[in-house]
Write a structure and sequence with these properties.
Blueprint (H helix, E strand, L loop, with lengths): L7 H6 E3 L5 E3 L15 H7 L3 E2 L2 H10 L3
Antiparallel strand pairs: 1-2, 2-3
Length: 66
């Protein structure tokens, strides 16, 4: 049986912790940051990451094989 390979795109975007928590980055922070669409407060809050829900974390743990 061959080794399980991790999904390279997912492994660059998500970090897996031993307790089963999967950390993610915020979206919508790549371009149009100087426009009037995004306020200072919104851009500041986009710097913070978040955590996946437990149901999505189980799926991501299968994709992010260590």
């Amino acid at each position: 049986m061959p080794k399980m390979k991790s999904h390279r795109g997912a492994s660059k975007r998500f970090t897996y912790h031993k307790s089963g928590i999967v950390k993610r980055n915020s979206a919508y922070k790549s371009h149009r940051l100087n426009s009037k669409l995004k306020s200072r407060k919104r851009k500041r809050n986009l710097r913070k990451g978040g955590y996946l829900t437990p149901t999505l974390a189980k799926k991501m743990c299968k994709i992010i094989v260590k």
